[in-house]
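Order emerges. One example.
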Amino acid sequence: MRSSSTHGRSRRRGRVPTAAGGLVAALVLTVTGCGGPGDGGADARAGGGVSRPGAGSGLPGEIADRLREHGVDLDRWKDGGWKDWDREDWLREAQDYVNPVIEGLWGPERMRSAREADKRVTTLDTGADRGVSDPEPAPVEAEPEKTPYHAHAAPVGKVFFDSPEGSMVCSGTVVKDAARPGRSNLVWTAGHCVHAGAGGGWYRNIAFVPSYNDLGASEARLAGATTARIAPYGTWWADWASTSNQWIEGGASTGGDGAAHDYAVLHVTPEQGARSLEETVGAALDIDFSAPSATQVAAMGAWGYPAAPPYNGLRMFKCLDRPGRLSLGPSLPTMYRIGCTMTGGSSGGGWFRVVDGETRLVSNTSIGPVTAGWLAGPRLGPEAEQMYRSMSGAHGDG
């Protein structure tokens, strides 16, 4: 999730504006109002790489046939065949996505051992040839979220997945589904948390755990913890996934040209149970696709589960700051950038702002420096909205 910066530090900015306090208050009000425990349609021109469904523990016949063309035997896959990362056969195209439920795979110890999904570069020149960038923000110390998390930030959770390098972790946010009010099964995260980008393919065993470690227990107190304790609202498997074609074609281990489009949406299904994700956690956030300029926004907040030192991925943190602009290239969209000390593992975590008195998701964590002083996230405009609309209503929740 990280990139690195070697350019000089900017002068420190003033205190976070009072609007940030309102951001937190609005978030709390948003998440405590409820109880607790076809074809994707978007194509390369629209910038959407929408998968076809791999629902439940099986797949529709058409998709199963397509996977057989790639030499994938589903029974063997669920019995451990997913561990074969032959680069020639790594499923890359949107229609090739497969993520059948393997019940019990994500147990407490496996979740705790998952490493952060990093995005790093050795240098980041934000000079005039790179486009428009504001001075590097001063670091903002990440604050731990209050517990229990479901009472203060219910839409936030962790995204787990397997990559050729091992088990990885990101963060994610429950978002509303316009086609299914009150019954959303959609999760917003980063593109690099679901797909490796150029030269790679879809990650495997992608799952979302809302309010992970709800009480913020320490590692010592979680020794021998049951899945129900560390994942009190269940484990939700991504039977559909979508990210931008810009990420699929231009994403890289350093973020690459795809960083400005480093976003994804998951449609999830519970490992057990039948209620929707939104009904289960009691909350979901609207998405702001207006892509406001950083100069128009008084404050943004980033939430997530940082896992790289000095954090261990067990607790939820947040940062509040006035956003600035970051350009990775003159032809690429400007990204948001805020001061924040969260590290890898917070990738994909939602960025929120208050619009007309309501908290809305406006971005997600994509890249940041190795020194953990700031985070950057994409602006969500028409291409992101089309990707979302293609997922909303395209699945058969009933």
